[in-house]
Task: structure prediction
Amino acid sequence: MRKTRLLGRGAWGAAAVAAAALGVAGCWGVNKRHPKPLNYDEMGLETHHRGLMGSPEVGAPEEERIGHDTLDKLRAPGKKGGTGAPAPASGAPSAATAAPAPPPLAAPPDAPSFGGKLDKGVVRAALRAHAAAIDGCFEKAKDDAGGATVVMEGAADAGGKVTGAKLVPTTAPSHGVEACLASVLDGVTIAGAGGAGTFVWPFKWTPPEPAADPVVTYAGKSDLSKDAVKSALVLAEKSVHGCYEKALAAKEGLGGTLAVKLVVGKDSKVASAELGASTIGDADVEKCAIDAVKALAFPKAKGGGTVNVTATWRLTPGAVR
Result:
């Protein structure tokens, strides 16, 4: 008889534990965003808990107070009252407080911009005056910087002197070219600015194509060699580039190919010169090239024949367009 009563009490006890677990699950669901150890006094379960399981020791683990199975059900993802995820580790930033990822860098500008008293005309003229040094920065790294665009920014004081030139942050460094450009730009004085200002300038570099070898044909006998013709044309090339640079200062983006046909006479002087194929689109540069060729002197040749030569130059603006 006593055994029967004990079994009865056990059955009633099991039912009470289940009821308590359901009550805990419901209370847990109210605060599922902030999981924490169960507080039985707050949930009104003090009497049930102590009556069924006895008073837990102070500081007893949560598993000992309500049982592993019940705790697992309460914390199971997707279950009513469950958290779906373990509590964040102490000191770890939550998704709500974590620092946002930095935005992607904007594309570097492909056109110059200006502030204050500066404008494109005065800045470009000042940069063209230092074009050889600027191109030299790219030439030093030509194996790596071919086709590169390096965007620099700087500021000019009231007298036009540039200081603080540096790479625009949205531009990727280009093999040290930016340090060289900063050094050149900090030596530039922008004449005619009319006051202080700022500028951003994209230096677009395309390596120059090698000069084309002259085409040399002979009419009659002559020992004037092609190498001698090529050496003589170097002097004309310097003059042609000088004329081109002068025209480029006033005409943005000027460039192309230019050919001059000439005849070297029996006396080794230029008997005639005329314009050949040209895409340069500038009459002053074309005339300059013809005049430079006419002024050439070639080595004395034997044989009494004449020599026909076609000289071709490829003219490109370099990094300052």
Observations:
- The two ends are 109 Å apart (CA to CA).
- Strands lie at 113-116, 149-156, 162-167, 197-204, 215-219, 256-264, 270-278, 306-315.
- Confidence is low (pLDDT under 50) at residues 1-35, 42-58.
